[in-house]
Specification:
The protein is mainly beta and about 80 residues long. The chain is built from one helix and five strands. It has one domain: SH3 type barrels (Roll), CATH 2.30.30. The radius of gyration is 11 Å and the shape is globular.
């Protein structure tokens, strides 16, 4: 599966290892990810694709408008 906007991913490396995020943007090498809690929409984290584990779940664009909606959607993965 390809990394695209709205894809739910799990961090494989770093201090956030094991946590779930949603991809906001992908430019080929780095993905901008946020979880709505520690990494919010206005300050996403850039992470290399090799440090992310892709899931089969993709969030709807309507759920990616606020940090609260992202937290709520990702809560089922935690």
């Amino acid at each position: 599966m390809e990394v695209t906007k709205g894809l739910v991913v799990k961090s494989k490396a770093g201090h956030d290892k094991g946590k779930f995020f949603v991809v906001l943007e992908f430019n080929g090498k780095y993905a901008s990810i946020c979880d709505g809690k520690r990494r919010k929409l206005d300050n996403p984290k850039n992470k290399k694709e090799k440090h992310l584990s892709k899931t089969t779940r993709k969030l709807d664009q309507n759920l990616m408008v606020s940090n609260r909606e992202i937290r709520k959607a990702l809560s089922q993965f935690q």
